[in-house]
Every structure is written in structure tokens, then in C-alpha cells.
TrEMBL record:
Alphabetical list of InterPro entries matching this protein: AAA+_ATPase, ABC_transporter-like_ATP-bd, ABC_transporter-like_CS, P-loop_NTPase
Originating organism: Paraconexibacter antarcticus
PROSITE patterns attached to this UniProt entry: ABC_TRANSPORTER_1, ABC_TRANSPORTER_2
Compositionally biased tracts (Low complexity): 67-80
Protein name: ATP-binding cassette domain-containing protein
Length: 393
């Protein structure tokens, strides 16, 4: 049985923490990593591998595999007029069926200024707008600190099944920390994280190991193993976590590589690929075990606007495809969750948005409703304005 990393369960500070999985080499990762979780380690940091083709690496061909974008212009957000929900006074009431539904319900006037502008949670209505689907992942009053640095401070958040959702929020607010809680690489100091209704922090190691098979994770830069070619990188979870015959592995990997437009690149090494190609290879690897939940940590970082738009389209296409398969097979509908700072990507791709700030949700709900929110923070963040509650602090 592979060793399950239990990061941050006993200690909260950086000093003296157990060795992080990110720091392990490929062999350790093979033993310790969940099936499709590959840590946020740029290929360039991997040990140098001399490969015939790598001795004089060709300039990465950025355009390989990409077709011309149909258009980079954003789709109209919705066909029908957005449904506006009443806004509640900051810090008081929550509508819908969220965990805060027991809070006193004091519905106030739309655009009411914050009760106390010096209150750092003045804009956190915590409004949970109904999305009509069960949650694949739920954070229930989660608190997490590293030493004195309190990152999650009472986080209540749901990520719906069958949707592409996004967690948006300022830098350093704890978005990546959320991903690590979902897959059991970090544990809450307080509160609970549920995946398909099961508590991750309370899972025995064997169950945790199985639970991780539900996830595919695409970390920034694809986090490919630099010592393996693209084919072997994508085949890695299948070889580690299934008993599939090599013939079946070849068929699965080839089909996943074709899907992401890298059918021709199986024998290339990560250092021969452009950033966009590495991300697509990482995406193919994240999908190879048919996960129920796919997590993308800033998939658009380092990509130009056109490649970003194309990656967004690819995510939508594959989500739709998996939706159809699951509707036919009856399995859980796929929950794709992206962490991004790119508002254009959010406008184009997101069906559900959670805005995270200071360790709590400001508002969450269907994307078109969030883009039409009357909350000044949400409005500022989703329009990228310099004026508003969010400053440089
Ligand atoms: N293992 C750890 N030990 C100590 N501090 C940590 C650890 N992991 C994360 N942090 C801290 O938690 C905070 C939130 O980090 P996180 O990476 O989740 O932010 P983020 O919202 O994803 O930011 P960005 O958008 O810039 O990527 C940061 O201050 C980070 O330094």
C-alpha cells in the first residue's frame, strides 16, 4: 500500500514540517502520490535527462496542435436576463440553502453601504445563490492557519457536480490551500471538507487513497516529470494505480493525447514543449483515470490570451464530453473546478463562481448572477477595477 502523505495534520508552521511531497523525487512521488495528483513542480526543476532529441532541443512549436481560435471575443454571458437576488446586509444574512441559513435573516436594500467599513468582512455577505445541483465538494466552516498566518477563516463553500466552477480571489487568499484540502494533502484545524458527502479529514488512509482516485489535478505548468516523455507522463497514473494491460494503456493514453491535440507529441520530453503544450499534457494526465472531479490550479498562467482562450474551449469541450458519458453511464456528473485570476476565462468558461477573500466566501453562485452582483467587492474583482473595497494591502 503506498504511503499516504499527511501534510500539516500535526504541525501548522513551515519549520519542521514533514517533507513536502513537492520535494520528493519521481520515485517517491510514484510511491506517495495519489493517482492523478502531480505536484506543482516545474519540469525545469526536474533532474536533467539526456535524451537524443533533447541534446539539441528544437524551439518549441507553440502552434502545434492548436487550431485558429474561432474568436477570442467573449460569448454573450446568457440568453435571458440575469436573475437578480436580493442583497443582504454584509455580515448578517444569507439566502438559499447554505450552511449559514440559520443566521438571522435581515434582508436589506440593494447597494446598502457596509454597516462598518472598517470591518474586514463587511463585504462578505456569504450569499450562497442556489445552483440546483448537489455539491461534489463542500467546505464546512473550515479554519486553517500556518503558524500565526490564518488562511482559511470559517470557509463555507460548495463546488457543484456537473458544472465548471471557478474559485476566484486575490493573490494569497488561500485558493491553492483549498485544493490541497480537497485531496487530503492538508487538513483543516477546524471544520470539515466533504467529497461526495464523505469527510476527507476523517478518512482512514485506505479510504483516502481510494478517494483520491476521484480527482484529477492539473497544477501550474503541468507539473510533468521531466525524466519521462509525454506518453509515459500520461500513462503514469494508469501504470501506478490500475492493472490495465499495456495494450489498453496505449489505447487510453493515445486517445487522451488526441483529445488535447497532442497525439503527435507522445515521444517528446517536457523541456521540448511550449508552456501551452505542457498544460495540455498535464490535462491529459489529469483525465486519464476518468476522474469525477478535475481541479485546475491557474491553468492559464503564463499563456498568451489566445492560448488561454483555446485552453478554456478545450476544458469546456472535455467537460461536455464527460457530461454526456456520465449521463449515459449514470456516474456522478463531472465537477471541474478552476482557480484563476483571469476574468476573461471566468466570463467565457465559468458556470459557477465562488469569490474567496480573507479566508471566506464573499459570494458564490451561478456565474451570470455573480457577474451581475450588486456587491461592491464582487463587482470590483470581476471587472478588474482599481476602485473599490480591494486595495493593495
Ligand atoms: N505549507 C504551507 N506552509 C506555510 N504557509 C503556507 C503553506 N501553504 C500555503 N501557505 C500560505 O498560505 C497563503 C495562501 O496561499 P495560496 O497558495 O493558497 O494562495 P492563493 O490564493 O492560491 O494565491 P495565488 O493566487 O497567488 O496563487 C500564502 O500566504 C502562503 O504562503
Amino acid at each position: 500500500m503506498p504511503r499516504i502523505p499527511r501534510i500539516g495534520r500535526d504541525r501548522n508552521d513551515d519549520e519542521g514540517q514533514p517533507e513536502r511531497p513537492e520535494d520528493r523525487d519521481v520515485r517517491d512521488a510514484a510511491q506517495a502520490s495519489p493517482p492523478s495528483i502531480f505536484h506543482d513542480e516545474p519540469a525545469s526543476a526536474e533532474p536533467t535527462v539526456v535524451h537524443p532529441a533533447a541534446s539539441a532541443p528544437a524551439e518549441p512549436e507553440d502552434d502545434l496542435g492548436w487550431e485558429e481560435p474561432a474568436t477570442a471575443a467573449p460569448e454573450p454571458a446568457q440568453a435571458e436576463a440575469p436573475k437578480r437576488e436580493p442583497i443582504v446586509a454584509p455580515g448578517f444574512a444569507v439566502m438559499g440553502a447554505g450552511k449559514e441559513a440559520d443566521a438571522p435573516k435581515r434582508v436589506s436594500v440593494v447597494n446598502e453601504p457596509p454597516v462598518d467599513p472598517t470591518d474586514e468582512y463587511a463585504w462578505h455577505t456569504g450569499l450562497v445563490r442556489p445552483h440546483g445541483m448537489p455539491d461534489a465538494v463542500e467546505f464546512i466552516d473550515v479554519h486553517k492557519a500556518f503558524g500565526r498566518n490564518k488562511i482559511l477563516r470559517g470557509l463555507n463553500m460548495g463546488l457543484p457536480e456537473g458544472k465548471i466552477s471557478m474559485i476566484l480571489g486575490p493573490s494569497g487568499t488561500g485558493k491553492s490551500v483549498c485544493i490541497k484540502h480537497m485531496v487530503g494533502l492538508l487538513y483543516p484545524d477546524q471544520g470539515d471538507v466533504l467529497v461526495h458527502g464523505e469527510s476527507v479529514p476523517n478518512m482512514p488512509d485506505d479510504d483516502l487513497f481510494e478517494m483520491r482516485k476521484k480527482f484529477g489535478v492539473l497544477f501550474q505548468d503541468g507539473a510533468l516529470f521531466g525524466s519521462m516523455n509525454v506518453f509515459d507522463n500520461v500513462a503514469f497514473p494508469l501504470r501506478q494505480h490500475t492493472d490495465k494491460a499495456e495494450e489498453e494503456i496505449v489505447a487510453t493514453v493515445s486517445s487522451r493525447l488526441d483529445e488535447v491535440g497532442l497525439g503527435f507529441a507522445g515521444d517528446k520530453f517536457p523541456n521540448e514543449l511550449s508552456g501551452g503544450m505542457r498544460k495540455r499534457a498535464g490535462f491529459a494526465r489529469a483525465l486519464v483515470l476518468d476522474p469525477d472531479i478535475v481541479l485546475f490550479d491557474e491553468p492559464d498562467s503564463g499563456l498568451d490570451p489566445v492560448r488561454t482562450a483555446l485552453l478554456g474551449e478545450l476544458i469546456q469541450e472535455i467537460h461536455e464530453e464527460v457530461m454526456q458519458q456520465r449521463q449515459e453511464s449514470g456516474g456522478p456528473l463531472p465537477a471541474f473546478t478552476l482557480i484563476t485570476h483571469d476574468i476573461m476565462t471566468a466570463r467565457r468558461v465559468a458556470e459557477h463562481i465562488s469569490v474567496l477573500w480573507k479566508g471566506r466566501i464573499v459570494e458564490s453562485g451561478p456565474a451570470e448572477e455573480l457577474f451581475n452582483s450588486d456587491n461592491a467587492f464582487v463587482r470590483q474583482f470581476l471587472s478588474g477595477e482599481s476602485q473599490g473595497p480591494l486595495g493593495m494591502e
